[in-house]
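Hi all, long-time lurker, first post. I run a small reading group and we've been trying to get comfortable going from sequence to structure in the token notation. Rather than ask abstract questions, I figured I'd post a concrete chain and ask someone more experienced to write out its structure so we can walk through it together at our next meeting. Sequence below, copied exactly:
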Amino acid sequence: MRAWLAVIAALFSFGCALGGFDDAGTSAPDAAAMDAGRMDAGRMDAGRSDAGGGGDDAGPPPMDAGPGMVDAGPMMMVDAGPMMMVDAGPMMMVDSGGATTCSPTPANMEISEILVASQTGAADRGEWFEVHNRAGCTIDLSGLVIDVDGTTHTVTSGLLTAGGFFVFAQSSSAADNHGLSQDYVYGSTIRFGNSSGTLVLTHAGTEIARLTWTSTDHRTGRSRQLSNGASMPTSLAGSGWCDSTDVYSTALGGPYLGTPGMVNATCP
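-- Answer (accepted) --
Happy to help. Here is the structure in token form:
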């Protein structure tokens, strides 16, 4: 009897074991390995083959976008850079340069105004004179020689525009010049004699203009100006010259009269 009970118990245990493996689907081998395990949801379907390839597919766009930067870079450097330098630079230099420049001649330039003495005494440094361009071209004043009673100065630079005026002064000091606005400073070696003097302008050995005066031909602090439209006499006492009446500065010691850098009045 006991032998039969042992056989029945063994058969029952074996049947339960077989039923749990095939039917319930809850054993570890069944659930993990066969139905929901590595074969279906693991590396094959949602694993590295499908999602991993996305990294490979997404990789090339940076490579595709890279050359776009290369294409845009050189184009901006080549087209915009050199073109602006070549077109704007030399063209401005050529257009504003010497295309219409001419040299001083007796026909195109004259002395149009002079202040022989701004103050009394030998320490006066407010002297100045003005030249006028009667031509239609810009006069290059480089090389013009200023000669006052044998003392000379050669102008280093300066452009006198067509129809314009250009002021030469002894000093660059605003105090010495009594507020004068000058275009060129020739320095203290050039001095106008109050009792008498001669101013001569030459260029390349040619005399451009000459002006002489005595003590009775000028007033202290007041320029002598060439009447607007008049031909230049070589003496401050000559017809066409007159004392200025316009004030150009009210600085200490003034007022100072003249029209430096501007059109002269018509003399009475």
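A couple of things your group might point at:
Confidence is low (pLDDT under 50) at residues 1-5, 7-98.
The first strand starts at residue 101 and ends at 102.
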